[in-house]
Amino acid sequence: MASSTSPLFPPIAILLLLLLLPPPAATQHDYYDALHKCILFFEGQRSGKLPPDQRLKWRHHSALHDGASIGIDLSGGYYDAGDNIKFGFPMAFTTTMLSWSIIDFWRNMGPELGNAVKAVKWGTDYLLKATSVPGVVFVQIGEPYSDHNCWERPEDMDTPRNVYKIDGSHPGSDVAGETAAALAAASIVFRSRDPSYSRLLLNRAISVFEFADRHRGEYSQSLRNAVCPFYCDVNGYQDELLWGAVWLHKASRMREYREYIFKNEVVLRAGDSINEFGWDNKHAGINVLISKEVLMGRAEYFTSFRQNADEFICSVLPGISHPQVQYSPGGLMFKNGGSNMQHVTSLSFLLLTYSKYLSHANKNVPCGSFSASPSMLRQLAKRQVDYILGDNPLAMSYMVGYGTRYPRRIHHRASSLPSVQAHPGRIGCKAGSRYFLSPNPNPNVLVGAVVGGPNVSDAFPDSRSFFEESEPTTYINAPLVGLLAYFSAHH
Prior knowledge:
Glycosyltransferase, 3-stranded antiparallel β-sheet, two-stranded antiparallel sheet
């Protein structure tokens, strides 16, 4: 007599089915409303002079003189999180992922497509400024220790706006490679919408990548005191070089990038850290992105990347023992380190994207004796999105402004301090501390912000003091744009 764990129903399949079932209190989600809010969040993170069509009216112009100390206009771009520093590394990754969301899911965005494209352009306009001097990339504006010592609005900030750069003598192939990837990916977004802007982006991506490849090194070594421990690249620069080359190949179709990828696959360790993807580690994203070519039958010489992508999928499925990817009792992916939602949205984006590529090729993912179908990958990604939107043990949406119960005391200076309209007078560095310590909800709702999220036990303290749980970031939201676009059209 066959047992319940016969080959027809291996244990992993049963575990997956249980996990993918919606929780008892599951609700029907308005994914399009969530998409609208997810994109709106980026307007709350804008630095520089705000345009007339700015929709989050409680924000105002800020950091208008960034770069003035060196005679270059470096205003604009995004604040990465709840502070007032402009970190180029996560900003570039954010721009890459916004672009990828549009490239693969623009048909599902409806009227929000225009706002998504604007979000990309706010990033690329700044990255063009940051790469305007040949052989130099300006990678950070602001002194993080003094900034983090203050709790003040970006409109008021008076901490030093030091400009940090990489160059031939102080390399940073990681941040330069990611910047090249962002510019190349965005050039695809604008190819038909604004051909001249698209050409500018692609040409700049080519020159920035050439600089990154010629002057190899980690920016964490060149700029350690400024970028560590905030965005210290612990994973090395090799993945960003391969990532930049992959996006340049996709954007330009130039043979030299295909050959670069092929020649450097082993040297740049494409098969390393296969279950990692985020601002610091591009390995899983590289393998998924190249696998599209393999699955379409256009690049058999890249078969090893497809194998790596399959291994990535198997490593994140629940039920397969892997120490780096856990699941909370409520079904949320969890990886060690701060701001867990960055892993949830990035890995879920890859699950969904790879499922799309597999579907078109009519392929599954072999995981030992078990085979994962594209629909199973989509369901797992959807389960993560639904958890974020409220299908979780606390019945709380982790997207600010979505649903009736969401975080009210997020770790975010502009959101937690009175707006310029409500309090025209300046609020100094330490004068803002009382707002940080206040038990009251933030006065300004940063609509669409997805916070770092609950711990591995599904517990969440709605408190500014717990920044790893309560701070939103641009690179949490960027992959979520693609996910919400797809589910808004298919559910």
